[in-house]
Amino acid sequence: MAIELPPFPRAEGDPIVKYPDPVLRQVAEPIKRITPEVRQLVSFMRRVMQDANGIGLAAPQVGRSIRLILYTDFSDESAPEVHALINPVILKTAGEQLEPPEGCLSLPGLMGTVRRAQTIWVKATNMQGKVIKFKAEGLTARVIQHEIDHLDGILFIDRADPATLRWVTEEEKEQEAVAASK
Ligand code: ZN
Q: What's the rounded Cα separation, in Å, for the pair 43 and 45?
């Protein structure tokens, strides 16, 4: 018989679920319909991601085990855009990339090198309910792969080269704070 554990303590006032909250290890459920609740969740996640200076966020990271992600599209470097994807699937991959090191809003302060595909072909439903297929490369492809992993209960620490895992230094934190204040 499985032992029923008490709910994992979540920090009050912090919308981002942190490791080792079990929701981060669940396989998220597909979304069948874009309900007003899903739309609300997307706007909430946009705010949370922006406040945390994140470049991607998956619904399980705000405690909802459903297949929804936000990612930043860096293909136009001068104007990065945030998009939501519903039930995203990677159809095909090509090449590989090692840089830049990855971090995760659910594992604050930790960084590591993760080998990812350089190019991916993605199929998903957009917020208009339309099935879309597109190609993403480089950092955009890295973010999408990281966020889709969240939907399958996979964290970057599972894929990172263990020798490269490290805590962000105080100096780096300060630099980040300076960059964020700009
Ligand atoms: Zn993450």
A: 5
For residue 60, the 8-state DSSP code is: G
Cα–Cα distances (Å) from 163 to 45, 111, 145, in that order, read 32, 11, 21
Catalytic residue check, 99: no
pLDDT tens digits for range 52-97: 999 999 999 999 999 999 999 999 989 999 999 999 999 999 999 9
83 CA to centre of ligand 1 in angstroms: 16
Please tell me the distance between residue 23's alpha carbon and the centre of ligand 1 in angstroms: 13
CB 1 within 8 A of CB 38: no
* Domain with residues 22-167, CATH architecture: Alpha-Beta Complex (3.90)
Q: From the CB of residue 132, how many other CB atoms can be counted at a distance below 10 Å?
A: 14
Question: Cα of 13 to ligand 1 centre, how many Å?
Answer: 19
What is the rounded CA–CA span in Å between residue 5 and residue 23? Answer: 13
pTM: 0.93
Among 12, 37, 99, 147, the active-site one is 147
Report CA(133)–ligand 1 centroid distance (Å): 23
Write down the domain spans for the chain.
Answer: 22-167
The amino acid that residue 31 corresponds to is I
Question: What are 41's two structure tokens?
Answer: 């969740």
